[in-house]
Amino acid sequence: MAAPAAVEGVAVTALRSVFLRVRQAAERAGTQTERVRVVAVSKTKPVSLIRQVYDAGHRCFGENYVQEIVEKAPQLPEDIEWHFIGHLQSNKAKTLLGGVPNLAFFHGVDNEKIANHLDRAVSGLGRNPLKIFVQVNTSGEASKSGIDPSDCVHLAEYVKSHCPNLLFSGLMTIGMRDYTSTPENFKTLSNCRLEVCKALGMAEDECELSMGMSGDFEQAIEMGSTNVRIGSTIFGPREYAKKPQN
C-alpha cells in the first residue's frame, strides 16, 4: 500500500530536522557529526515511503522483523546499508542473511547460540563478514533482551575468537521506555565499552555504541553514541495491526 505523498514529504522534512539535531548534539559533545550514523528504522512502513527517504539521499535503514526486511530489501536499491535490530530466532539466521545480501549490521547478539548461527549462515552463503553489536541489557528489565553488563566482555571475546565470519563492531542497548534512567543506562554501556576495549586490546573508536532512539537520541550522542536508531520521529507513528513475526 503506497503512502500518501503528503506523508512522504513529511518524512523527508523530518529526516532533515533529525540531521540538524544530530549535528547540534554532536557539537555539544565535541565530536564530529560524521561519526554518528543515523539508522532510519522503517518497521511497519511501506516501501514507497522508504524510497522517498532514499531519494532524499539517505542510505542507512533498519528493520526489526525478518519477514518485513526480506520482503522490502529486494524492492529497494542495492546500495542501501541495512541494519537488523533486535531479537532473532536462531532458525531465521539463514533466511535473514540470504534474503538481504546487503545487510551490513546486526544489532542484537545477546548469546553465543545466536552468534554461532549467524556465523554459520554467513559462511554457508559465502558472503562478506557481518558486522555485529553485542546487546547489553543496561536497564535490568526482564522484558528486554541483552546480556548482563558483567557478561559483555565474555561474549565480545567469544565472537572475536570463535566466529570468524562475524566482525565485532561494538555494543548496543535500549534505554528505559520512560527515559527516567536513560543517562544511567547509557553510562553503563559506555563503561562496558571501556572494559571490552581493555580486554580485547581495542581503541575506543574501534568499538561503536548503538544507543538512542527517537525520544533520547540527542542525549545518547552527547554520551558517546555513534549509532542512533530513529523510527517514529522520521516515519511517523507505527501501525501494528499486522505485526510480523521473527
Q: How would you sum up this structure, described in words?
A:
The chain is an alpha/beta fold. The protein has one domain: Alanine racemase (TIM Barrel), CATH 3.20.20.10. It contains 9 helices and 8 strands. It has helices at 5-29, 47-55, 66-72, 93-99, 112-125, 152-162, 182-200, 217-222, 232-235, and strands at 37-41, 60-63, 81-85, 103-109, 130-135, 166-172, 208-210, 227-230. The protein has an 8-stranded parallel sheet with strand order 7-6-5-4-3-2-1-8. Helix 7 (182-200) links the parallel strand 6 (166-172) and strand 7 (208-210). Helix 6 (152-162) crosses helix 7. It is globular and about 45 Å long. The model is unreliable at 1-7 (pLDDT under 50).
Specify the number of helices. Answer: 9
Q: What coarse outline follows from CA principal-axis ratios? A: globular
- Taken together, the total number of domains comes to 1
Number of strands: 8
Outline the biggest β-sheet.
8 strands, parallel
Strand content: 15-25%
Q: For this structure, what is the CATH class? A: Alpha Beta
Determine the CATH topology. Answer: TIM Barrel
Q: Tell me the CATH superfamily.
A: Alanine racemase
Structural class: alpha/beta
Distance between the termini: 22 Å
Radius of gyration: 17 Å
Kindly report the spatial arrangement of strands forming the biggest sheet.
7-6-5-4-3-2-1-8
CATH architecture classification:
Alpha-Beta Barrel
- Give the overall pLDDT as a whole number: 92
Helical proportion, percent range: 40-55%
The succession of helices and strands, N to C, reads HEHEHEHEHEHEHEHEH
Unreliable segments (pLDDT under 50, ≥5 consecutive)? 1-7
Modified residues (N6-(pyridoxal phosphate)lysine): 43
Protein name: Pyridoxal phosphate homeostasis protein
Family: Belongs to the pyridoxal phosphate-binding protein YggS/PROSC family.
Pfam families: Ala_racemase_N
